[in-house]
Amino acid sequence: MRLLALSVILSLLLIFTAITSMYGDYEEKVVSLRGLERYRITIDFKVLQYGFVLPSLEVLLSNSSTFKVYLNSKFTPLPGFYLFLRRIVERRHAMLCCGSWYELEIHNDGRFMRFIVKVLNSTFIVTRVHTVPVLFSQGLTYGGGYWYFTGTASIYKLSPDMSKVVEYSDDPIPVFLKEEGYFHLGDLDYYRGLLLIPIEKTGYVRPAVIACYNASTLELVRYAYVPQDHMPWIAVDGSGYIYTSEFSPVREIYVYHVDLIGRGNSIEPTRILRLSCELRNVQGGVVLGGGKLLLSADDGDNLYVVDLRSGEVSKLVTLPGLYEMEGIEFVGDDNSIYVLVNTHEEENIVYELKYFERGSSLEVFRLRTSDVEVHDKVIIRYRASEVVLGGVRCEATGFGMKTNLGVVLGVAVVCALLITLYRYFRLKRVK
Predict the structure, then answer these.
(1) Residue 162 lies in a domain
(2) Domain shared by 284 and 341, yes or no
(3) Which helix (H) or strand (E) segment is 419 a member of?
(4) What is the distance between the alpha carbons of residues 370 and 378, in angstroms, rounded to a whole number?
């Protein structure tokens, strides 16, 4: 009985500690809007780290109107901006990146209420968060107007908006390769009507396989054995050179050429590029313009840029590390980076990142002022472990009835008095 009571007490203490850690580090600032009808509130803040399930920043405009910023790593709710109104919730799934300064502007011009995020230093922003089926778990690529995803042992062809499966193969590894122990597909790439897909062997022992699939039919066209234990990803440049690596640790990039891939032949790297530093848990890669290679690594989770001439490595951005980072793609049509994240839950997610120059902005919401209730006292609440606040400013942006009611009445009285005096003296002259 004593042991049961002790276990209950310990459980309650753990729950209390968890709740305290989740809610205990909120801090507040108050902005007064008394006498203001048209105004601009600006909040400078820096993202220190990603959150979990609670909002990192909140602006309580009234009891029924609250703007929230979720920087959470957790799948539910999805990260982004949320505006809670009386009975509706406006939402935009996005993610602000760690280490960057931003400015949140709430601007009421009398007709519209606008919520705008401005970057104070050049950075990336996850502008969209896509959800995809859990089977899309290894890699992604875009080519010929379609998206392609790989599962552990499946290939999927999707519509341009990722909403519809156009074609799929649930058994793309031929029997003779299965009999040799090959079972695991990696992050793929598209090249001139072909899908180049790495295939790994049971036990992750060499040789790995580079396989070429027809992008229309998803059928194997040709393949070659390469001297690697792991081959988690493949990236192809416009000249047909193939870049890949081991999984971890990664000290070298191996370069092959698509023309060397035959029907079961063995090939050697045409070049080995030494990296300036060791990387770990590399899961995806894509070739950028200008002789650069972009890598995704499940090491916390980071994107790295590799100079394909010198091997110099630099960190580009850090994303939430709760789940397993997988493949990566760059689409030049909209200058977006797409990163596949395996949640090991009901759905996986794809982060769509765009680069924002210093001073550029993103309009999050635009609503009629009448739809958003705002009180005279606005409360800014933030989690100090995730966000640090800089300046908080509020300024009037125009003349409104609430601001100038006394002035308007005073002017009206003076005008009425002047008109009365004018009429009085005019009548007096006539007489």
Answers:
(1) yes
(2) yes
(3) helix 401-430
(4) 17
Phi-psi region of 161 (alpha: psi -120 to 50; beta: other; left: phi over 0): alpha
Residues 213 and 343 in one domain: yes
The four Cα atoms 72, 369, 374, 91 give a dihedral, to 10 degrees, of: -10
In a domain, 389, yes or no: yes
Please tell me the distance from the alpha carbon of residue 214 to that of residue 178, in angstroms, as a whole number: 19
Evaluate whether residue 158 is within a structural domain: yes
**Structure token digits, residue 368:** 């009629």
Residues, the chain: 431
Phi-psi region of 345 (alpha: psi -120 to 50; beta: other; left: phi over 0): beta
Query: 402-413: b or e for each residue (b if 16 or more CB lie within 10 Å)?
Result: ebbeeeeeeeee
For the record, the structure tokens of 342 come out as 């395996």
Q: Do residue 149 and residue 271 come from a single domain?
A: yes
pLDDT tens-digit profile of 258-310?
999 999 999 999 999 999 999 999 999 999 989 999 999 999 899 999 999 99
d(C-alpha 190, C-alpha 26), whole Å: 47
Which residue, 232, 330, 350, is CA-closest to 281?
232
Query: Which has more confidence, 18 or 51?
Result: 51
Name the pLDDT band for 425 (thresholds 50, 70, 90): low
Kindly tell me if the per-residue pLDDT of 161 is higher than 50.
Answer: yes
Domain boundaries, position 157: 127-353
Residue 9 within a domain: no
CA-closest candidate to residue 28, choices 58, 1, 55: 58
What Cα–Cα distance (Å) separates residue 423 from each residue in 233, 411, 428, 431?
Answer: 90, 18, 9, 12
Report the CATH number at residue 160.
2.120.10.30
SS3 assignment, position 350? strand
CA atoms within 13 A on the CB side of 127: 16
Which contacts (CB < 8 Å, 24+ apart) does range 269-274 have?
A: 269/226, 269/227, 270/241, 273/306, 273/308, 273/311, 274/311
* Domains of the chain: total: 2
CA distance 96 to 212: 37
The 10 Å Cβ neighbour count of residue 313 is 17
